[in-house]
Amino acid sequence: MQPLAPKNRLNLVNTKPPSNCVASFSRGATTHSDIGHARVAPDLLDFESVMQNMMRKIKRLMLLKSVIRTNPKGWIEAARLEEDTGNIRKARELIRKGCEEFPKNEDVWIEACRLANPDEAKGVIAKGVNTIPNSVKLWIQAARLEHDDYNKRRVLRKGLEKIPDSVRLWKALVELANEDEAKRLLQRAVECCPLHVELWLALARLEKYDATKKVLNKAREKLPKEQVIWIAEAKLEEAFGNTFMVGKVIEKGIRALQREGGGD
Predict the structure, then answer these.
(1) Residue 69 resides in a domain
(2) At 30, is the pLDDT very low, low, confident or very high (cuts 50, 70, 90)?
(3) What is the pTM of this model?
(4) Fewer CB within 10 Å, N- or C-terminus of the chain?
(5) What are the pLDDT digits (tens) for 168-191?
(6) Alpha helices in the chain (DSSP H)
């Protein structure tokens, strides 16, 4: 057998694949790498983000658990954290425990009411007002849970039986009343809260001319330094066309306030 001539021998060292094969392989490798990067990297980033958020929430929850024994706000924050993670059942358990640990804290009851099932919210707030009957905030919340004005008024009246000097409860009740009922309520309100000028002025606006002047005079007896009472009387005279009385009322008011030390 004759050996291959030098020009016909295979060069196993310098043999190169066809140029089109190299280009095809190179393009294929690049495409495969890019696809892998596009598929994996976002998933890794999302996973890292989720884990970081989870670790922050775990650390926050551990911190809250360390303070909830002595701080009612800790119970509220812990319950909200569970709510944020979608664990509403655990949130309700925590805030219920908070109510047991701090039964005299109205904010814990308000949060428990918010987290409760709609059909259980009234029961929660009822426990709250029974535990803290002098909490205006809880009585207002109890009234809000009622769907009709009749029951709202009923709840507010119960609240006023416990806290007759609450201006906020009186205002809420008056807002639900018609004009005649509002007048009766305000007459009672100024007896219970004689030092709150807004109640006197609200009553004066519902009365006729002569009765309004009497109301303003009574208001001045209780609040001699209140400038707005004199201003209200001046506006009353102006509204009824008694322009000659407006200046007299203002002058009289200035002298009275100077005597009382309430005029500027």
Answers:
(1) yes
(2) very low
(3) 0.73
(4) N
(5) 999 999 999 999 999 999 999 999
(6) 19-67, 72-84, 88-101, 106-115, 118-131, 136-144, 149-162, 167-175, 179-192, 197-206, 209-222, 227-239, 243-260
- pLDDT of 25 over the 50 cut: no
- Two tokens, residue 228: 């707005």
Instruction: Name which residue leads in pLDDT, 57 or 205.
Output: 205
> 52 to each of 42, 48, 49, 88, how far by Cα in Å?
15, 6, 5, 22
Range scoring the smallest mean pLDDT among 43-57, 71-85, 101-115: 43-57
Q: Residue 166 pLDDT > 80, yes or no?
A: yes
Q: Is the pLDDT of residue 1 over 70?
A: no
Say if CB 131 and CB 109 are below 8 A apart: yes
pLDDT at position 71 is 86
> Residue 135 is encoded by which pair of tokens?
């909490």
Where does residue 205 fall: left (phi above 0), alpha (psi -120 to 50 degrees), or beta otherwise? alpha
Structure tokens at 251: 């002058």
For residue 23, give both structure tokens. 């280009």
| Of 119, 129, 99, 123, nearest in space to 111 by CA | 99
**CATH code: domain of residue 116:** 1.25.40
How far is Cα 110 from Cα 95, in angstroms, rounded to an integer? 10
- Tell which of 85, 114, 129 closes a domain: 129
* Token code pair at residue 18: 């066809």
Of 74, 98, 129, at which residue does a domain stop? 129
Q: How many residues are present in the chain?
A: 264
* Domain assignment present for 229: yes
Is there a domain that residue 34 lies in?
no
Residue range of the domain that includes 259: 195-264
* 221: in domain: yes
Q: How far apart are the first and last CA of the chain?
A: 131
Under 8 Å between Cβ of 195 and 172:
no
Domain count, the chain: 2
